[in-house]
Specification:
globular, cell membrane, 8 helices, 39% strand, Rossmann fold, 354 residues, ATP binding, six-stranded mixed β-sheet, alpha+beta, ATP hydrolysis activity, disordered C terminus, OB fold (Dihydrolipoamide Acetyltransferase, E2P), nucleotide-binding
């Protein structure tokens, strides 16, 4: 069952379209990441779901309830949707407990019990209830913001780049902790981010936006392996894009003959391989199922590194290909190597045989 449904949602500002004809289904209890470059419309879409903005046309429903359509809209405070902004937006004049309990109603004792439960839920010591926001680390502030959003038992949680202000190590640990927490609570979640790695690791469903439009949506692995076009391929990570000619399940390209999944495709095309599909071999002269290249650069990152390997194209020009390698066994710049492809290439575009 889908918790959230967006149908043909459109929004313009001053005549300039910000979101164009977006339709998206978010399954109940799932985590969806909306990713795209700055200006792609992802935050505008999130704010329309929250009720902070209203679409010019289209329909948004949550658990079967119409939140907004051509007939009217449910105000933001009545949607039971949690919202965590990028900076947490804690009230600086309120304690941690008062921030979490903001908006809670009922007897004082019940409120205090609920605040204590929420502190436990986000893995914060109950002794922190008396602290002020400026006395917390960035990660602790985000946990308090999440606890405040969970206090109302929301039907949907919206996260607007909540980890972007954290350092790299803390960002990864917070992302895992929040994903685990929301999964255990069974809360349907939408994350907006410009960080591709964050989106791929966090989400059950990935939605890629570009210039106000939804380009592609699906499982993260599916989009990473089978992007719709070259722009999406490059946005989701490093990619090797090569012109090729398809025939009987093989793509003839500068790397030699590379298998593709669809043997019915024929003629010129553009294929994509991810860097981890390229294997670096010692150039001993005995490899017949690989192509030759020269290591031009080595970007060392500890246990792994990315090699830039120059391969001469059929037209006589050198193309630099990114190749993943072990950081301990990476060949030095200037080394002659051979490149072997692993798995199937993804076909981004093809045309019929002339």
């Amino acid at each position: 069952m889908n918790a959230l449904e967006l149908h043909a949602v459109h929004k313009s500002f001053g005549g300039a379209p910000a979101v164009q004809n977006i339709s998206l289904s978010v399954p109940a209890g799932s985590r969806t990441a909306i990713v795209g470059p700055s200006g792609s419309g992802k935050t505008t879409l999130l704010r329309m779901i929250a009720g902070f903005e209203y679409p010019d046309r289209g329909c948004i429903t949550l658990n079967g309830q119409v939140l907004v359509d051509d007939q009217g809209a449910v105000p933001a405070h009545r949607r039971l949707i949690g919202y965590v902004p990028q900076d947490g937006a804690l009230f600086p004049h309120l304690s941690v407990a008062a921030n979490i309990g903001f908006g809670l109603t009922g007897p004082h004792g019940d409120k205090q019990q609920r605040i204590a439960e929420l502190l436990d839920m986000v893995a914060l010591d109950r002794s922190m209830a008396a602290r002020w926001p400026h006395e917390l680390s960035g990660g602790q502030q985000q946990r308090v913001a999440l606890a405040r959003a969970l206090a109302q038992r929301p039907r949907l949680m919206l996260l607007d780049e909540p980890f972007s202000a954290l350092d790299t190590g803390l960002r990864a640990s917070m992302r895992k902790a929040v994903a685990r927490l929301l999964a255990e609570a069974g809360v349907t979640t939408i994350l907006v981010t410009h960080d591709q790695a964050e989106a791929l690791s966090f989400a059950d469903q990935l939605a890629v936006m570009r210039q106000g439009r939804l380009v592609q949506a699906g499982a993260p692995l599916e989009l990473y392996q089978h992007p719709r076009d070259a722009q999406t391929a490059l946005f989701l990570g490093d990619a090797v894009l090569l012109p090729a000619r398809l025939d009987q399940g093989l793509a003839e390209c500068d790397l030699g003959l590379v298998p593709v999944r669809d043997a019915t495709l024929q003629g010129p095309a553009q294929i994509m391989l991810r860097p981890e599909q390229l294997q670096v071999l010692v150039d001993d002269g005995d490899c017949t199922d690989s192509c030759q290249g020269v290591v031009r650069e080595c970007d060392f990152a500890g246990n792994t590194c990315t090699l830039s390997i120059g391969v001469t194209s059929a037209a006589g020009h050198e193309q630099l290909l990114p190749v993943r390698s072990s950081g301990l066994q990476a060949p030095a710049p200037g080394s002659r190597v051979r490149i072997r492809t692993l798995g199937h290439a993804h076909v981004l575009g093809s045309s019929p045989e002339a």
